[in-house]
Design brief:
This protein is 56% helix and 4% strand. By secondary structure, it is mostly helical. The protein folds into 2 domains: 106 residues, DNA polymerase, domain 1 (Orthogonal Bundle), CATH 1.10.150; 178 residues, hpI Integrase, Chain A (Orthogonal Bundle). The longest helix is centred in the first third of the chain and has 21 residues.
Length: 341
Amino acid sequence: MKNNFAKYLTSFFTEYLSGERGVSSHTIRSYSNTFTLLLNYMDEVKHIRADKLIFDHITRQVVIDFLDWLQNNKKCGNNTRNQRLAALHAFFKYMQYEDVQHLQQWQDILSIKIKKLGKRIRINYLTVGGIKLLMEQIPTTNKMGKRDLSMIALLYDSGARVQELIDLTPVSLHLNPPCYVTLFGKGNKKRLVPLQDRQVLLLQNYMKENGLDKPCYNQRPLFANNRGMKLTNAGVTYILQQYASNARQVNPELIPDRISPHSLRHSKAMHLLQAGVNLVYIRDILGHVSIQTTEVYARADSKLKREALEAAYINILPANTSEASWENDSQLKVWLKGLGK
């Protein structure tokens, strides 16, 4: 097969995804990251440079090896592995119609199954006390600190995904009552998230100090780096982790060992749930397509489950069973205590 991998990959992104399908920039970014990783893998492990890569090199087994490499070397979980596989599947579904002569090769790759996700629900979030401690570490005596406080507070207050935050411009904010921020999520879906008064005041002061309240600057990045360019996912993560590290030294019990911008989104969802906000409203704030996605927070909050059970508890046991009969048997208790020694 001639060296046409680059040709088809380019048309997949420029003509099919952007033109024919009209997918969101988030999807294109995710897919491009997958193929960047694939090219890195082929170069580092298979010793095939990108300019020498042809379709003959990409077999079903190579794709499986690549996915295993992501998990073993890049420490990706099953969920990330499945996302990378979904991007590859999308490309080879496209190739079924572009090159039918090698249909068997495409279908072999498409036969690779996703990995089942574990049923254990584990959400990395901070308590309200943890959020407050984190915010207290951000200085407000300099311009950069004021930017970081406005950014991290908005990330939590709006429950935004980090890319949604990065893409914000001053025109995304409506700071006259009713105040809200306009976010564009997956599938370019638009949602309006209300802002609290203190958050509004913080943003107003930040924008005024940086000249972002002027109409001529309303398309600039709301949160920019020192070169005036919009921040990256890695940049926001780095900033957050610096303050998290400082907060962890103050009280390690309040700050998880691992923290990311998405942890603040999880935190907002959990705090809304704990405050009694309906899951439907939480779904709309977070921009979830299905209520089933939002239900993960309800399933993860064991404190709420315990409180619900305690509130509904009815004592159905006879009074004389409040202490089990064997509790008075000293010999039995000695025997029980001896187990496992």
